[in-house]
Amino acid sequence: MKRLLLAATIATVTALTIAACGGPAEQTATPSTGTASATDDAAVDAPGPTGIPDGMGSGAADGVFPRTVGHFGGSTDIAAEPTRIVVIATGQLDAALTLGVVPTGVAYGSGAELVPDYITFSFPQYADRMTQFVDVGNRLDVDIEAIAATEPDLILANETGSEDIYSTLSTIAPTVLTEGTGVNWKQDFLLLADALGRTEQAQSFLDTFTTDAAALGNSVAGSGGAPTVSFVRFTADRARVFGIESFAGYVAWDAELARPESQQFDATSQDFSEEEIQLANADWVFVSSQDAGADSSAASYTTNPLWTGMSAATENHIVRVDDDPWYLNAGPTAATIVLGGLKNALQG
Fold first, then answer.
1. pTM of the complete model
2. Closest by alpha carbon to 219, among 256, 250, 248?
């Protein structure tokens, strides 16, 4: 099922990557409110930031080095275009590859592969080079010696998860911290792109993405408004619904898709019990399972009569999605996969 869903959205990913590169490309938290412009109504109303916060970034044109990049860890001088890059945060591998930059060292998320399946599907042109990635450990407990051994000229990480080791990383190579958490994905993509000298390229990608999202919303808006969409994730022992202020929630917001009242809370996600299964219901439910074993929460919840009796279930509007791009990797290519999945379901 995972491979089928990825294949169904690969065309959307490829189109957006081409727009970004000018040719074929070589979890619960409070969101930031920083935006590129306080006068931008869309930015003010969005669930997360739409641009690099004031006082951050370099202001330099694409390809211009040296540059000094302000970021969530301070300010970093980057003397020349980086060629040996280590990415630590989940989603940063996605972001770099979307911009046509292949890292040298890569960290992985807990319980995840070094290279998620959706990355393999989305970037087949880098298949050989991805087999040569240096594993620098779990993103929450990286191997400092492995990072140093790659002799990087740039390290990219998130303030969330790497703030405590920022000074250590900075002794190895210039280090830039993005903020982290899914609702900040646009801001973080642009800030990462700035460190790589590709901010304009990233903005072009986002402009195309926003246009495509709006087109989806317009196509499904009927006399009664857009259908409501629900985002659900099961782990081995937890069930959560994701709000507007989440990665998938932000993608749905861009498409002007409605959310059920039960998911309009001020947080990334919220746990729900089997007695509260109705909180997951909407016109369409997009659900992933990190663990679907016989003793998992997914098995228990989805066989519960309260689940099978939801209107989304009886109308066959429950869509199984890939955990990695929808709920784990807040990157630009993951966003196109989420948008493609919404489009495939809602447009039939």
1. 0.88
2. 256
DSSP β-bridge partners for residue 229: 284
Interior CA angle at 171 toward 169 and 177, to 5°?
A: 35
What does the buried/exposed string (b/e) look like for 211-232 if buried means 16 or more CB atoms within 10 Å of the residue's CB? ebbeebbeebeeeeebbbbbbb
- Cis previous bond, 66, omega within 30: yes
CA atoms 231, 236, 239, 242: torsion sign: negative
Q: Which two tokens stand for residue 241?
A: 């619904």
Q: Burial code of 277-306, b = ≥16 C-beta within 10 A, e = fewer?
A: bebbbbbbbbbbbbbeeeebbbeebbeeee
Q: How far apart are CA 175 and CA 169, in angstroms?
A: 6
The type of residue at 66 is P
The model's pLDDT over 122-134, given as tens digits with 9 standing for 90+, comes to: 999 999 999 999 9
Express the helix, strand and coil content of the chain in percent, nearest 5 each.
45, 15, 40
β 154-158/85-87 pair status: parallel
* Model pLDDT for residues 242-255, shown as the tens digit of each residue: 999 999 999 999 99
